[in-house]
Specification:
Elements: E1 2-7, H1 21-25, E2 44-49, E3 65-69, H2 81-90, E4 94-96, E5 98-101, E6 107-109, E7 132-136, E8 139-143, H3 151-154, H4 168-171, H5 182-192, E9 195-200, H6 203-208, H7 214-223, E10 233-237, H8 241-247, E11 253-257, H9 265-269, H10 276-279, H11 282-288, E12 294-298, H12 317-323, E13 327-333, H13 361-370, E14 375-378, H14 381-394
Parallel strand pairs: 3-4, 3-14, 4-9, 5-9, 9-10, 10-11, 11-12, 12-13, 13-14
Antiparallel strand pairs: 1-2, 5-6, 7-8
Helix pairs in contact: 2-5, 13-14
Region (Disordered): 397-480
InterPro entries: GP_PDE_dom, PLC-like_Pdiesterase_TIM-brl
Keywords: Glycerol metabolism, Hydrolase, Signal
């Protein structure tokens, strides 16, 4: 273990409300206070950080990647080009879209193929008759589905915030962006010097209706020159069958996603009784290692949290995955109190807006990075990047030189106008320093700890972006 010391954790994303992103970008001072505050934090906190793994899979990366979960979706409607542009400016290494298909077999980015919660489709009378009920992976859903629309028809819709009560600041940007295609996201990533981390959503279902996702996915990546294991690309799935098939079709890296409960749909369909928990055992990980390069797991599987929000002891999953030469990426770190373990929540639980207020997400990230994970999915990639860089500097690591630094060479789409985020990354680093929260050593007992208000950090240029490239494999995957 390497002992890293840094200033006590504030809440870089601890904004008292989500109504104004401009306050965040200008580096104002947050004033969120901890309930039950009784003393100031000390100016320094010691945090134990797992020593980085030796490079073993190509490139120079030996530190965690920051995965922009659906873009910077804490601040813009998810899966939109403005959300991905903001993520790039914040310093994300990889853009993460969930991919579904249109009727004319074009891959688009949506949380689900049912789009009533993420677009304004219900306001379009011309599509009222398309509302229907389907069974998708065992769930009965009623609404509008991407596979019933051509791309041209989807382009007439506008994206909206999926969680408007929790993220009113993002909801202020409803209606400003259309549904983005995978091609547009890859083109943006390529121009901006970042990679992509693409999820095949319901791959078995889409294959069953004659719209398999894998062909268009690989074709689009190949069109932009991404075909090799060393390229900054990851392909993820909650199912196992399409990853096994992909292993024979591509050298790009594959990620087996796991849940804390349930089982992969393809295993359920064929009567295989194994669950996600079974796949997370040493034996399950050994099998995953025959076709995948990484596992993507919920944070609960590496640091459990009980129903009261209390943290449990770390599990051996990180070490177990590394023994199989698998990277391990954790999902999803969100800044709001509603999604944080109790020790990292800030504010008065009885106050209006407590659930949507930003807590000490930096402290939670330090805890996760300290476990030795290889990547983090984050709805706020800016704070994930900032904390990652603190860990990198504290551990004495050196950034790879092959990444593209600075602002994306990108002109906003006409439809997004002035609302598109195409500025450089430096401004996004001026995070508001909020009330001090717990250190990464916080136990699961008790609530948040009060801290001393600190001045906002000065604007500084972002350090060189990690390349997100693969590390050389110690042995090739079977079927690769």
């Amino acid at each position: 273990m390497t002992c890293v010391r840094w200033p006590a954790a504030g809440a870089p994303a601890g904004l008292p409300a989500l109504l104004s992103l401009l306050a965040l970008l200008s580096g104002g001072t947050a004033s969120t206070a901890s309930a039950g505050a009784s003393s100031d934090m000390s100016s320094l906190a010691s945090v134990a950080v797992a020593a980085p793994r030796p490079a073993s899979r190509g490139g120079s990366r030996s530190y965690p990647v920051v995965i922009a979960h659906r873009g910077a979706c804490a601040y813009r409607p998810e899966h939109t080009l403005p959300s991905y542009r903001m993520a790039i400016a914040m310093g994300a290494d990889l853009l993460e879209p969930d991919l579904v298909s249109t009727k004319d077999h074009v891959l688009v980015a949506r949380h689900e193929n049912e789009i009533s919660q993420t677009t304004d489709v219900a306001r379009h009378p011309e599509f009222a008759a398309r509302r229907t009920t389907k069974v998708i992976d065992g769930r009965t859903l009623t609404g509008w589905f991407t596979e019933d629309f051509t791309l041209a028809e989807l382009r007439t819709l506008r994206a909206v915030e999926r969680l408007p009560a929790l993220r009113p600041g993002s909801a202020a940007f409803d209606g400003l962006a259309s549904v983005a295609t995978f091609k547009e996201i890859v083109a943006l990533a390529k121009r901006s010097g970042v990679g992509v981390y693409a999820e095949t959503k319901h791959p078995g279902y889409f294959a069953s209706i004659g719209l398999p996702l894998e062909g268009p996915l690989l074709a689009t990546l190949g069109r932009y020159g991404w075909r090799e294991r060393a390229d900054p690309v990851w392909i993820e799935s909650f199912e196992t069958a399409n990853l096994r098939a992909l292993r024979h079709r591509t050298r790009l890296r594959l990620v087996q996603l796991l849940e804390a409960a349930g089982a992969p749909r393809d295993l359920v369909t064929k009567g295989d009784r194994r669950t996600y928990r079974d796949l997370a055992t040493p034996g399950g990980l050994a099998e995953i290692a025959t076709y995948a390069d990484a596992v993507g797991v919920p944070t609960d599987l590496v640091r459990p949290v009980d129903r009261h929000g209390r943290l449990g002891a770390p599990t051996p999953l990180v070490a177990d995955a590394h023994r199989q030469d698998l990277d391990i990426h954790v999902w999803t770190v969100r800044p709001e109190n509603a999604y944080l373990p109790a020790p990292f929540r800030l504010g008065d639980p009885a106050a209006p807006g407590y659930a949507s207020a930003h807590g000490d997400v930096a402290g939670w990230l330090r805890t996760l990075y300290g476990l030795g994970v290889d990547g983090v999915f984050s709805d706020d990639p800016g704070v994930a990047r900032q904390v990652r860089d603190e860990v990198v500097r504290g551990a004495g690591l050196v950034h790879g030189a092959s990444g593209t630094d600075g602002s994306p060479a990108e002109t906003p789409d006409e439809e997004e106008g002035a609302n598109a985020q195409a500025s450089g990354g430096g401004a996004f680093y001026a995070r508001a320093a909020g009330e001090g929260g717990p250190s990464a050593q916080a136990s699961g007992e008790g609530g948040p700890v009060a801290g001393r208000r600190r001045q906002a950090a000065p604007v500084r240029p972002a350090p060189p972006r990690p390349p997100g490239a693969a590390r050389p494999r110690s042995s090739p995957r079977r079927g690769a």
